[in-house]
Amino acid sequence: MLKTDKRFGKITFSTLLIITIVAVIITDCFNLINIAGHKLGTTYLSTFLNYSSIILFVVIALKAKNKHTIPTSIQLLFKFWLFWMLFNIVRATFIAEDYWDWKFLLLSALSFSLITLIFYVGNNLFYVKRIIQFVLKYVFLYGFILIPLALVTHEELYSRIMIPISFFIVLAPYLKLKWKVLIGIVATTSILIFVGFRMNIIKTVFSLILLLLFYFRAFISFKLLEIGRVFLFTLPLLLFAMAIFGEYNLFNELDKNNETTVSFNSQREENLMADTRTFLYVEVLATLHKSGNWLIGESPSKGYNSVYFYNSGGAMKGTRYRTEVNILNILLYHGIIGIILYFLLLYRVSYIAITKSNNMLAKMLGLFIAFRWTLSFIEEYTQYDLNFYFFWLIMGLLSSSTFRNMTDTEVRNYLTIK
């Protein structure tokens, strides 16, 4: 059932993949500590770690022997998506004008574009299991030592490193009791350590809802799952249309709720429903309206004109190279064509996960992918990190007919981790 491991010299690919996870954790910690104001001067080290990992992903993609297990429609959509990103990367090299354009393109945009190749890692069930084992046994179990570092540097650090926890919550019914307990502790700790990390709370709550679906699966019809999937894909598009044409802004409405204000210390309070997104939409859409590059985007070497962030928030003299909202970044870099390709790929993968699978885990993860589309209109900060590492890993896993053909008993045996 599992694909055999391959070797890169004397080291197996699965071992190298574990090293890539460690590399992502290190670079994530560096980035967050730098953001907190503790300048470490680790840019070159982070870049080396990222690109070393990407080389491995490229090699695995080129050597993948299990592409026949991926439906033709998904193979085509994924290749179109990959081609469009690479096309815009190449286009960006002709558009880049100054130091900051080139810095963002080479140190950020290229790496978070090519992390997509983890899709092919997800097609290999052997690699997926090795990654799951490592995260459970080492990242989650020993990750608590990051808490003191988070308390003295960046308050989100621990929660950001534990970001794959929402995926593992969905896996929980198939794991041994000790791993279920560990997942529960990590999930609870990642929320309590910093309540202001709103997306972490939202993802965790949704994963818990998926758990309810598992335990009440005997009473839930396939049609209900499909309705839920379509709803998750439709909702953000409907709300976006209402904000543009109907003058109804959900973010503004939520901002009026003062009951969700929490106090972090005696000098700082924050409303968890505060509207921190509307102005981002306004600025990105205004930039595209001015340039007229709606169809193909500004390219990954160009940012958007920001009044709110002039020389702060990553902006340089009014130009900010990315927002906190993934769908806006896709629109900015790849235009409407990019959004359509991204939508079609996620829609198709989630569809086959629910309609063409023999196990409940695939169906739950299909809804999980649909929910990530919804979240992309709210946050999903576009960068090379564990969040997107596991996103593309799940996309690849769900695209594997070998995984989808497994029964729940076979999935439980597959995920037996001592």
Return the structural class: mainly alpha
Quaternary organisation: single chain
Strand order of the largest sheet: 5-7-6
Number of helices: 19
* Percent in helix: 55-70%
Query: What proportion strand?
Result: under 5%
Q: How many strands in all?
A: 7
Question: How far is the N terminus from the C terminus?
Answer: 19 Å
Compute the number of structural domains.
1
Please tell me about this protein's structure.
The longest helix is centred in the last third of the chain and has 30 residues, at 326-355. The two termini are 19 Å apart. A hairpin with a 2-residue loop joins strand 1 and strand 2. The chain contains 19 helices and seven strands. It has helices at residues 13-35, 43-63, 72-95, 99-114, 118-122, 125-142, 146-152, 157-161, 165-171, 177-192, 198-215, 222-245, 250-255, 278-291, 326-355, 360-375, 386-398, 401-404, 408-414; strands at residues 7-8, 11-12, 261-265, 268-271, 304-305, 315-316, 319-320. The protein has one domain. The mean pLDDT is 89. The strands form three sheets. The protein has a three-stranded antiparallel β-sheet. The protein is mostly helical and 418 residues long. Helix 11 (198-215) packs antiparallel against helix 16 and helix 16 (360-375) packs across helix 17. It is globular, with a radius of gyration of 21 Å.
List keywords for this structure.
mainly alpha; 418 residues; two-stranded antiparallel sheet; three-stranded antiparallel beta sheet
Write a brief caption for the model.
By secondary structure, the chain is mainly α. The protein has one domain. It contains 19 helices and seven strands.
